[in-house]
Amino acid sequence: METTEINLEQHFQNKIDNEIRIEPKDWMPEAYRKTLIRQISQHAHSEIVGMLPEANWITRAPSLKRKKILLAKVQDEGGHGLYLYCAAETLGVTRDETLRDLHSGKAKYSSIFNYPTLTWADMGAVGWLVDGAAILNQVPLCRASYGPYARAMVRICKEESFHQRQGYELMMKLAQGSPEQKEMAQDAFNRWWWPTLMMFGPRDAESGNTEASMNWRIKRFSNDELRQRFVDMTVPQAEYLGLTIPDPELKFNEETGHYEFGEIDWEEFWNVVKGNGMCNKERIDVRRTAFDEGAWVRDAATAYHEKRKQKEQQKKIS
Ligand code: BYC
């Protein structure tokens, strides 16, 4: 490494260690840039693909109030995806490139969105569990060292907290409803509990990116730390709803003050991550079709922009 590059690297790490944000025009090591592009674009894809399992229920929401809530939530997620794609663009990657990687299957997105939403109760379980997990993971990202990512996360987290609350409230209504409704809530809980624990990523020992991401203060907590926090937070919420946690090994350890839980099915996790989950193919097919069918909108917007530019130039000349 050249002396100047060592100095730049040292200066960069000093800024990180002193909690000074890195901004788009600042010098940064190539590996930091690549890690951010990977994480931010995968996060954006997760938001966009995450709209699909819920959009499935908009036309079947049981009341006008629930339909409005669900519509607003899905729209928020579209917005989150857009802020995040913009944050990724500040690192020198184009929207076309990130979308190409999603459509070709090269880029990952959260494993959780490859599970089907089978009943209305799944809308409650997704809001309560999936958004609950997302908040735990994302609140520390509001302090990520890269400015545009951290700032996008502040707004996203505010909206996520409403998403989580509406999910818990929906589950409460079902859990306090008829025996059939309570059964639906329990069934949804049984199906979403384990996939939600997988959202936090592989065990720390298998998490190849954590060490560097923590040194760069992109990640503030490891995958296992956040997963444990989620279990500790969610078990009392499930008990309050009167639902049974689908884990016979779950028990509270008085000494550590934490819940111990059973082994996650890591084979299932990696299978889903590698593209072989229940809905992987369907999700990507829907995204590809939406992209192709939206080409005329992008073309029209570009043509309109060009026309306006030309008109403004003509005005300046005359
Ligand atoms: N699914 O070294 P690791 C939402 C990959 S959206 C798929 O620990 P890292 C919502 C990982 O990418 C929620 N892949 O990685 C939206 C890596 O592969 P690559 C999305 C996963 O990055 C709509 C490999 O496994 N949230 O909440 O240090 C409706 C090894 O992992 C998963 C974010 O994206 C997974 N679950 O840590 C409702 C948050 N886990 O990339 C809700 C931002 C791991 O090296 N992202 N992999 O090929 C993060 O915080 C981190 O990227 C992760 C993983 C904690 C997810």
UniProtKB/TrEMBL annotation:
Any one GO molecular function term: phenylacetyl-CoA 1,2-epoxidase activity
GO BP, sorted A to Z: phenylacetate catabolic process
One Gene Ontology CC term in the entry: cytosol
Domain of life: Bacteria
Name of the protein described by the UniProt record: Ring-1,2-phenylacetyl-CoA epoxidase subunit PaaA
